[in-house]
Amino acid sequence: MNPANASLKSEISSDFDWEKIRADFPILNLKIDGKPLVYLDNAASSQMPQPVIDRLVRYQTTQHANINRAVHYLSEVATMEYHNARCTLQQFINAREDREIIFTSGTTDAINLVMHGYGRKFIKAGDEIILTTLEHHSNIVPWQMLANEKGAKIRVVPINDKGELEIDAYEKLFNERTKFVGLIHVSNALGTINPIKRMIDFAHQHGVPVLIDGAQAAPHITIDVQALDCDFYTFSAHKLCGPTGIGILYGKAALLEAMQPFKGGGDMITSVTFEETIYNTIPHKFEAGTPPIAAAVGFGAAVDYLTAIGIEHIAAYESTLLDYATECFNEIPGVKIIGTAAEKTAVISFAIDGIHPHDIGTILNQDGIAVRTGHHCAQPVMQRFNVPATSRASFAFYNKKTEVDALVAGIRTVQKVFL
Amino acid sequence: MHTNSLYQEVILDHNRKPRNYGKLDHASHQAVGHNPLCGDHLDITLQLEHDQINSIAFQGESCAICKASASMMTAAVKGKSRLNAEILIHEFRELATGKLDLNHPHHLGRLTVFSGIRDLPTRVKCAILPWHTLHAALNSIASTSTETNNDSAQAVSSNF
Q1: What is the pTM of this model?
Q2: Shortest Cα–Cα distance, A361 to chain B (Å)
Q3: What is the pLDDT of residue A15?
Q4: Which of A81, A172, A235, A317 is most deeply buried (CB count within 10 A of its CB)?
Q5: Are A168 and A249 within one domain?
Q6: What is the pLDDT along chain B (160 residues), one digit of tens a residue?
Q7: In this complex, is the C-beta atom of B153 within 8 Å of any C-beta atom belonging to chain A?
């Protein structure tokens, strides 16, 4: 860890005074139309604590230049900070080597990278790709594009009425044509935590590589890519209290080396002539152009912030919020929770009899309550539950029980308006 | 913006008891409107005779704002000439997007209850969808979307 991050870490309370931790987030002091903000849209994007904001300011005011190029002081500092961020991410998910961490613009970009770099090289006509009903559109559409291009086929793992994957059905989908598995770790629409370790092991018994979309998992579950033995793992910074516009793709070094580049340009080459280009080694092969350096530094600071609290403590606290909210919701007549998996993160997707989610969202907003309404970029999940859309409250460690109470009161107001 | 002023009794009433709900058996014009942002859709059927809207009906899946807007729209344009309907469509779009000066003469009447929608950009499309779809139907465009700027871009005639 670099000295900057060490000093950042020392600024952070790790004594689980959640009120004190909440005070790190300046945006939570906002008033919306005179009402205190109740921010329950964390699955869409989380908020940024002051130490991460400060880190971005410090980078921008004292450390910024382009990286991997010039010999001057600032370029060396920026290059080192960017590299440090990569190492922070490597440690965060326990990757074997730092070169296995590719900075991308986010999870969507990372999945597209694997589709182009791995899929277009290794997936052929007649091959099959296994996805699940729970996937976010970002882990469906790229594979559909590939399947259409190559004449490959998408097979889909169904879910049960609780929103859990049907593992027997998953295992039955495998055959000699199965060449890839794309699997969401935690459902963004429902909060279901999938048994990915077991599913990865099964795929590997058939020699099939697995990509895990960890966008909703990394903020809530300790990730150990070596223990999971997944081939690819990806998530975005902005769901981890970091900046937008950056995420990572973890890939096993041997796979990344075998893959073709995704984007061509500066930094991803060793030498260029008009006859031939020699590609750079990983991770640079996949990082064409000037990367979002400040965002990477902020990403590293955000991971340090969360690590100082401890993902396991965050998960434990959030699960108390989920239990409390679930209990409250079950007591409101006419309200139905959609997604009741045994293993869930702190997400409650819900429907209110006879009231459209957008009307729910607008009326809750009147009380300063931010929830997401819509199909959550997971239309197959909506189709499975036969609803066009849901309302979704998603909690973070800086939320508190009184905010659950505010949500419940808000829902009663919605019901009163439509009585 | 006080959202209460949007969810007024007249809007809630039209949501609960939508007028002209259903589908005409012998429509001269019809169109389907989609809002891909939320998956809402509605279809409009109407009977145009001598350039006058004799009857009109709508049905679909939508939020309260969209449904009330559709219900009040059908009540407002029934019996009107095509030209007068198009004037209302234009004025309603201007109202919803905050461009209409309510101090100047207009033809919207009670439809001005939707004026508050201009402060909720994400909901403007909910209110406009029925009007967008009516415009498409009157111009023999079978299918339209809130994401279509130029209605004729997706023009498929369904004039029958």
Answers
A1: 0.90
A2: 10
A3: 53
A4: A235
A5: yes
A6: 454 578 989 999 999 999 999 999 999 999 999 988 777 899 999 999 999 999 999 999 899 999 999 999 999 999 999 999 999 999 999 999 999 988 889 999 999 999 999 988 889 999 999 999 999 999 988 777 777 654 332 322 233 3
A7: no
Expressed as residue numbers, the domain containing A376 is 3-48+311-417
> Is the domain of A292 the same as that of A335?
no
Are B72 and B17 a contacting pair, CB within 8 Å?
Answer: no
Identify whether residues A316 and A353 lie together within a single domain. Answer: yes
Total number of domains in chain A: 2
B14: nearest CA partner in chain A = A418
Q: In this structure, what are the phi and psi dihedrals at residue A329, rounded to the nearest 5 degrees?
A: -65, -40
What is d(CA A131, CA A108) in angstroms, rounded to the nearest whole number?
A: 15
Can A377 be counted among the known catalytic residues? yes
The closest of B70, B62, B80 to B132, measured between CA atoms, is B70
Q: Scanning every residue of chain B, which has its alpha carbon at the shortest distance from the alpha carbon of A33?
A: B1
| pLDDT over 60 at A311, yes or no | yes
A383 and A339 part of one domain: yes
3 state SS of A191: coil
Share of chain A above pLDDT 90, in %: 89
- The H-or-E segment that residue A131 falls in is strand A128-132
CA distance B108 to B41: 24
Nearest CA among A249, A231, A280 for reference residue A104: A249
Q: What is the tens place of the pLDDT at every residue in A34-78?
A: 999 999 999 999 999 999 999 999 999 999 999 988 889 999 999
A130 sits in which H/E element: strand A128-132
Residues of B in contact with A377 (CB under 8 A): none
For the stretch A85-111, pLDDT in tens is 999 999 999 999 999 999 999 999 999
We find that the CATH architecture of domain B18-153 is: Alpha-Beta Complex (3.90)
Query: Residue A356: which of B61, B116, B2 has the closest Cα?
Result: B61
Q: Are residue A245 and residue A282 in the same domain, yes or no?
A: yes
CA distance B49 to B44: 16
The predicted complex's ipTM stands at 0.83
What beta strand segments (E) does A258-396 contain?
A: 269-272, 277-279, 335-338, 347-352, 369-370, 372-374, 390-394
The residue ranges of every structural domain in chain B are 18-153
Question: DSSP letters of B37-73?
Answer: TTTEEEEEEEEEETTEEEEEEEEEE--HHHHHHHHHH
pLDDT at B145: 77
**What would the DSSP string read from start to end of A234-268?**
EEEGGGTTS-SS-EEEEE-HHHHHHSPPSS-STTS
**CB distance from B10 to chain A under 8 Å?**
no
Residues 6+ apart with CB under 8 A from B45: B23, B24, B27, B29, B30, B56, B57, B58, B137
